[in-house]
Amino acid sequence: MATLQPGERVVREGTFLYDLQIECDVRIVYSPIHYGTGDWEDPPEIQNDLEQDTYYVQYGSTTERGRFNAGGGGHRSLPEAMAAAEAAPGIGPTVRWLGPSANDA
Q1: Centroid of chain to Cα 2
Q2: pLDDT tens-digit readout, 38-59
Q3: Distance CA 25, CA 1 (A)
């Protein structure tokens, strides 16, 4: 399971179908940090961590529910992160969000 860092919280949860057959978890995590690449060849605004509200999409394992082993993107808003998950190649159309959106995200 992907461990949340200090200040992070899950703001949206759902499921997606892998290979249109296997139900997997998806979640969006709010973070007060936009993590940089850490690559010295990148410009500082990409290389370094920034204090900035950011939303990350995390995808669950295809073999173990509740374990998040893939993810991506640093999105500026919850709707932007949701749209990215819903547009993900191969799985986006199968994303189903559970419950209401977190209003305080």
Answers
A1: 11
A2: 898 998 888 888 899 999 999 9
A3: 11
- Reduced to 3 states, what is the DSSP secondary structure of residue 64? coil
Instruction: Give the helix/strand (H/E) hosting 45.
Output: helix 44-47
CB 95 within 8 A of CB 84: no
Q: What is the rounded distance in angstroms from the CA atom of residue 68 to the CA atom of residue 50?
A: 24
By CB atoms closer than 10 A (0-12, 13-18, 19+), residue 5 is exposed
Domain ranges of the chain: 9-98
Position 13: which residue type? E
Q: Give the start-end residues of each E strand in the chain.
A: 9-18, 22-34, 50-60, 68-75, 96-98
CA dihedral in degrees (23, 25, 94, 101; nearest 10)?
A: 140
Residue type, 105: A
40/46 Cα distance (integer angstroms): 10
The pLDDT value recorded for residue 83 is 97
